[in-house]
Amino acid sequence: MPMTVKKGDGQLTDYPKIPVIVILDRLRSAHNVGNIFRLADTCAIEKIICCGYTAYPPHPKLEKTSMGAEEHLAYEHMEKTSDAIKTCKANNYNVYAVETVDTAIDYRDLKLPGPSAFVFGNEALGIDEDALALCDAAVSLPVFGFKNSINVANCASVILYKAVELLRT
Q1: What is the mean pLDDT of the chain?
Q2: Which pLDDT score, from 0 to 100, does residue 54 have?
Q3: 3-state secondary structure of 142
Q4: Sign of CA dihedral 109, 114, 120, 125
Q5: Domains annotated on the chain, with CATH
Q6: What strand order describes the sheet that includes 18-25?
Q7: Beta strands 94-98; 137-140: pairing state
């Protein structure tokens, strides 16, 4: 049977969201942010919170990479990542830092008991220390080579698809 490549986007405008919020802490690259917006839409997550100097719509570089996903996704901007985390926790979300800390849970062992938020940090600086201290736990991807981390958008892909696996009903 011949394979046919899907062309064009879906026709859905109202689709069930999974209870996941992505918090972006001081990401430098608007292209990475746009990639995460597109990813978040494909995973049907609830919302993105862009913190600090992280780009947010409208932004031409973000919009180029997101390919219009920002039009189908809830988002907001907050100056402080710690405020975004506190807001999520006040709404009964478990908050996970996606970070290379010694106590991090391997993403393959992650269990999500309910609504969850994931904090992705600056690739050079990591997650702000005050914000990191507010997280309920940390999760990481194993590394097998010299570098201790991968591109933040690639990392978000692994984590968000794991969340889809655990929370999509």
Answers
A1: 94
A2: 98
A3: coil
A4: negative
A5: 18-141+148-167 (3.40.1280.10)
A6: 74-78, 45-51, 18-25, 116-121, 94-98, 137-140, 105-106
A7: parallel
Residue 112, judged by CB atoms within 10 A of its CB (0-12, 13-18, 19+), counts as middle
| Euclidean distance between CA atoms 30 and 62, whole angstroms | 5
Backbone angles phi, psi at 110, to 5 degrees: -65, 135
22 Cβ contact list (under 8 Å, min separation 6):
36, 40, 45, 47, 48, 49, 117, 118, 120, 156, 160
Quick one: which of 76, 168, 66, 152 has its CA closest to 116? 168
Q: For residue 35, what are its two tokens? A: 């990639």
- Distance (Å, rounded) from C-alpha 90 to C-alpha 67? 32
Neighbour-count burial of 115, counting CB atoms closer than 10 A to its CB (0-12 exposed, 13-18 middle, 19+ buried): middle
Q: Which of 24, 26, 36 is nearest to 62 (CA)?
A: 36
Question: Which regions of 7-82 does DSSP assign to beta strands (E)?
Answer: 18-25, 45-51, 74-78
Which of 115, 160, 162, 108 minimizes the C-alpha distance to 136?
115
Is 47 in contact with 77 (CB distance < 8 Å)? no
8-32: pLDDT as tens digits: 777 666 778 999 999 999 999 999 9
